[in-house]
Write a structure and sequence with these properties.
The complex is a heterodimer of chains A (115) and B (115). Helices cover 0% and strands 54% of the residues of chain A. Chain A is mainly beta and 115 residues long. With 115 residues, chain B is mainly beta. The chains are: A mainly beta (115), B mainly beta (115). At the A-B interface, strand 5, strand 9 and strand 10 of A face strand 5 and strand 6 of B.
Amino acid sequence: DAGVIQSPRHEVTEMGQEVTLRCKPISGHDYLFWYRQTMMRGLELLIYFNNNVPIDDSGMPEDRFSAKMPNASFSTLKIQPSEPRDSAVYFCASSTTGSANQPQHFGDGTRLSIL
Amino acid sequence: GNSVTQMEGPVTLSEEAFLTINCTYTATGYPSLFWYVQYPGEGLQLLLKATKADDKGSNKGFEATYRKETTSFHLEKGSVQVSDSAVYFCALKVSGSSNTGKLIFGQGTTLQVKP
Protein backbone atom coordinates (compact mmCIF):
# COMPACT_ATOMS: atom_id res chain seq x y z
CA ASP A 1 0.00 0.00 0.00
CA ALA A 2 1.21 3.50 -0.78
CA GLY A 3 1.94 5.58 2.27
CA VAL A 4 1.47 9.29 2.75
CA ILE A 5 3.11 11.05 -0.18
CA GLN A 6 4.58 14.51 0.15
CA SER A 7 6.11 16.75 -2.48
CA PRO A 8 8.54 18.21 -3.00
CA ARG A 9 11.05 16.42 -0.77
CA HIS A 10 13.29 19.46 -0.72
CA GLU A 11 12.55 23.11 -1.46
CA VAL A 12 15.01 25.98 -1.46
CA THR A 13 13.70 29.44 -2.22
CA GLU A 14 14.33 33.06 -1.46
CA MET A 15 12.48 34.97 1.19
CA GLY A 16 9.33 36.66 -0.01
CA GLN A 17 8.47 33.87 -2.42
CA GLU A 18 5.33 31.79 -2.17
CA VAL A 19 5.88 28.19 -1.13
CA THR A 20 3.38 25.39 -1.67
CA LEU A 21 3.77 22.01 -0.02
CA ARG A 22 1.63 19.10 -1.13
CA CYS A 23 0.32 15.99 0.52
CA LYS A 24 -1.58 12.91 -0.61
CA PRO A 25 -2.94 10.96 2.35
CA ILE A 26 -3.43 7.21 2.47
CA SER A 27 -6.59 6.26 0.62
CA GLY A 28 -9.52 5.88 2.98
CA HIS A 29 -8.01 7.97 5.75
CA ASP A 30 -10.32 10.75 6.86
CA TYR A 31 -7.95 12.70 9.11
CA LEU A 32 -5.03 14.72 7.76
CA PHE A 33 -2.43 16.56 9.85
CA TRP A 34 0.30 19.08 9.02
CA TYR A 35 3.31 19.31 11.35
CA ARG A 36 6.46 21.41 11.43
CA GLN A 37 9.72 20.17 12.93
CA THR A 38 12.67 22.34 13.94
CA MET A 39 15.60 21.85 16.26
CA MET A 40 14.46 24.70 18.47
CA ARG A 41 10.75 23.91 18.79
CA GLY A 42 10.59 20.20 18.08
CA LEU A 43 7.47 18.77 16.43
CA GLU A 44 4.52 21.17 16.24
CA LEU A 45 1.01 20.45 14.98
CA LEU A 46 -0.02 23.24 12.63
CA ILE A 47 -3.51 22.22 11.50
CA TYR A 48 -5.62 19.15 10.99
CA PHE A 49 -8.62 18.21 8.87
CA ASN A 50 -11.42 15.72 9.24
CA ASN A 51 -13.33 14.80 6.09
CA ASN A 52 -11.65 17.73 4.31
CA VAL A 53 -12.83 20.26 6.90
CA PRO A 54 -10.29 22.13 9.06
CA ILE A 55 -10.89 21.17 12.69
CA ASP A 56 -8.09 22.91 14.58
CA ASP A 57 -5.77 25.51 13.08
CA SER A 58 -4.57 26.95 16.38
CA GLY A 59 -1.02 25.85 15.59
CA MET A 60 -0.75 27.89 12.41
CA PRO A 61 1.89 30.45 13.30
CA GLU A 62 0.76 33.44 11.28
CA ASP A 63 -1.60 34.61 8.58
CA ARG A 64 1.20 33.94 6.11
CA PHE A 65 0.38 30.25 6.52
CA SER A 66 -2.72 28.70 4.97
CA ALA A 67 -3.85 25.13 4.36
CA LYS A 68 -6.53 23.64 2.18
CA MET A 69 -7.96 20.24 1.52
CA PRO A 70 -10.09 20.46 -1.63
CA ASN A 71 -10.76 16.72 -1.70
CA ALA A 72 -10.06 13.54 0.25
CA SER A 73 -6.86 12.78 -1.62
CA PHE A 74 -5.03 16.10 -1.63
CA SER A 75 -3.97 18.88 0.70
CA THR A 76 -1.70 21.90 0.41
CA LEU A 77 0.14 24.05 2.90
CA LYS A 78 1.08 27.50 1.60
CA ILE A 79 3.41 30.10 2.99
CA GLN A 80 3.15 33.56 1.46
CA PRO A 81 5.38 35.46 1.80
CA SER A 82 8.03 33.08 3.09
CA GLU A 83 10.66 34.12 5.65
CA PRO A 84 13.97 32.51 6.72
CA ARG A 85 12.44 31.51 10.09
CA ASP A 86 9.99 29.28 8.20
CA SER A 87 12.89 26.95 7.35
CA ALA A 88 12.00 23.55 8.79
CA VAL A 89 10.89 20.07 7.87
CA TYR A 90 7.14 19.92 7.24
CA PHE A 91 5.36 16.62 7.70
CA CYS A 92 1.95 15.48 6.62
CA ALA A 93 0.23 12.58 8.37
CA SER A 94 -3.08 10.80 8.03
CA SER A 95 -5.20 8.38 10.03
CA THR A 96 -8.35 6.36 9.53
CA THR A 97 -10.54 7.73 12.32
CA GLY A 98 -10.33 9.85 15.43
CA SER A 99 -10.50 6.68 17.51
CA ALA A 100 -7.80 6.71 20.16
CA ASN A 101 -6.23 3.43 19.14
CA GLN A 102 -5.59 4.40 15.52
CA PRO A 103 -2.07 5.68 14.84
CA GLN A 104 -1.10 8.41 12.45
CA HIS A 105 0.95 7.55 9.38
CA PHE A 106 3.59 10.08 8.39
CA GLY A 107 5.05 11.09 5.05
CA ASP A 108 8.79 11.53 4.58
CA GLY A 109 8.50 15.29 4.91
CA THR A 110 9.46 18.35 2.91
CA ARG A 111 12.72 20.00 3.92
CA LEU A 112 12.18 23.70 3.36
CA SER A 113 15.01 26.22 3.28
CA ILE A 114 14.24 29.92 2.94
CA LEU A 115 17.29 31.97 2.04
CA GLY B 1 -4.59 19.45 29.88
CA ASN B 2 -2.94 16.60 28.02
CA SER B 3 0.85 16.43 27.89
CA VAL B 4 3.78 14.04 27.45
CA THR B 5 7.20 14.36 29.07
CA GLN B 6 10.22 12.37 27.91
CA MET B 7 13.68 12.11 29.33
CA GLU B 8 16.11 14.51 27.76
CA GLY B 9 18.68 13.23 25.38
CA PRO B 10 20.90 12.45 23.78
CA VAL B 11 21.18 8.96 25.18
CA THR B 12 24.47 7.38 24.15
CA LEU B 13 24.94 3.63 24.53
CA SER B 14 27.31 0.96 23.37
CA GLU B 15 26.02 -1.80 21.14
CA GLU B 16 24.22 -4.59 23.07
CA ALA B 17 23.53 -2.32 26.04
CA PHE B 18 20.10 -2.16 27.70
CA LEU B 19 17.93 0.79 26.75
CA THR B 20 15.31 2.65 28.75
CA ILE B 21 13.72 5.88 27.59
CA ASN B 22 11.35 7.29 30.17
CA CYS B 23 7.96 8.71 29.23
CA THR B 24 5.27 10.03 31.57
CA TYR B 25 1.97 11.57 30.64
CA THR B 26 -0.91 13.68 31.89
CA ALA B 27 -4.28 13.09 30.32
CA THR B 28 -7.97 13.60 30.80
CA GLY B 29 -9.97 10.53 29.90
CA TYR B 30 -8.43 7.26 28.79
CA PRO B 31 -5.54 7.77 26.38
CA SER B 32 -3.90 5.41 23.99
CA LEU B 33 -0.12 5.58 24.09
CA PHE B 34 2.37 5.32 21.26
CA TRP B 35 6.07 5.27 20.56
CA TYR B 36 7.21 6.62 17.22
CA VAL B 37 10.73 6.41 15.79
CA GLN B 38 12.34 8.83 13.36
CA TYR B 39 15.44 7.68 11.50
CA PRO B 40 17.70 10.36 10.00
CA GLY B 41 16.12 12.07 7.01
CA GLU B 42 12.83 10.23 7.34
CA GLY B 43 9.36 10.78 8.73
CA LEU B 44 8.04 9.32 11.96
CA GLN B 45 7.12 5.65 11.98
CA LEU B 46 4.90 3.93 14.50
CA LEU B 47 7.06 1.64 16.63
CA LEU B 48 4.48 0.28 19.08
CA LYS B 49 1.29 1.17 20.86
CA ALA B 50 -0.87 0.27 23.87
CA THR B 51 -4.52 1.18 24.15
CA LYS B 52 -5.40 0.39 27.75
CA ALA B 53 -3.85 0.01 31.18
CA ASP B 54 -1.44 -2.92 31.62
CA ASP B 55 -1.20 -3.50 27.87
CA LYS B 56 2.30 -4.16 26.59
CA GLY B 57 3.21 -2.97 23.13
CA SER B 58 6.16 -4.61 21.41
CA ASN B 59 7.95 -4.48 18.06
CA LYS B 60 11.48 -5.09 16.76
CA GLY B 61 12.71 -6.04 20.24
CA PHE B 62 11.32 -2.85 21.80
CA GLU B 63 8.58 -2.96 24.37
CA ALA B 64 6.62 -0.58 26.59
CA THR B 65 3.96 -1.23 29.21
CA TYR B 66 1.03 1.12 29.84
CA ARG B 67 1.19 1.88 33.57
CA LYS B 68 -1.87 3.81 34.67
CA GLU B 69 -0.83 3.95 38.34
CA THR B 70 2.41 5.75 37.50
CA THR B 71 1.11 7.39 34.29
CA SER B 72 4.13 6.05 32.45
CA PHE B 73 4.99 4.29 29.18
CA HIS B 74 8.73 3.70 29.29
CA LEU B 75 10.43 2.28 26.21
CA GLU B 76 12.86 -0.59 26.72
CA LYS B 77 15.09 -2.82 24.63
CA GLY B 78 17.35 -5.50 25.97
CA SER B 79 20.19 -5.17 23.48
CA VAL B 80 20.47 -2.15 21.20
CA GLN B 81 22.12 -2.10 17.79
CA VAL B 82 23.81 0.69 15.87
CA SER B 83 20.81 0.65 13.53
CA ASP B 84 18.56 1.69 16.44
CA SER B 85 20.15 5.15 16.43
CA ALA B 86 17.25 7.50 15.88
CA VAL B 87 14.93 9.96 17.61
CA TYR B 88 12.16 8.36 19.67
CA PHE B 89 8.88 10.14 20.38
CA CYS B 90 6.33 9.19 22.99
CA ALA B 91 2.77 10.29 22.22
CA LEU B 92 -0.76 10.01 23.50
CA LYS B 93 -4.18 10.27 21.95
CA VAL B 94 -7.43 10.77 23.81
CA SER B 95 -10.79 9.96 22.27
CA GLY B 96 -14.12 11.55 23.01
CA SER B 97 -12.83 15.11 23.37
CA SER B 98 -12.45 18.13 21.15
CA ASN B 99 -8.97 16.85 20.40
CA THR B 100 -10.26 13.65 18.82
CA GLY B 101 -7.71 12.47 16.27
CA LYS B 102 -4.93 14.68 17.58
CA LEU B 103 -1.68 13.19 18.90
CA ILE B 104 0.15 14.89 21.74
CA PHE B 105 3.90 14.32 21.33
CA GLY B 106 6.77 14.47 23.75
CA GLN B 107 9.83 16.44 22.76
CA GLY B 108 11.70 13.42 21.44
CA THR B 109 14.79 11.61 22.74
CA THR B 110 17.82 11.09 20.54
CA LEU B 111 19.47 7.69 20.86
CA GLN B 112 23.04 7.20 19.66
CA VAL B 113 24.41 3.66 19.67
CA LYS B 114 28.14 3.24 19.23
CA PRO B 115 29.75 0.06 17.92
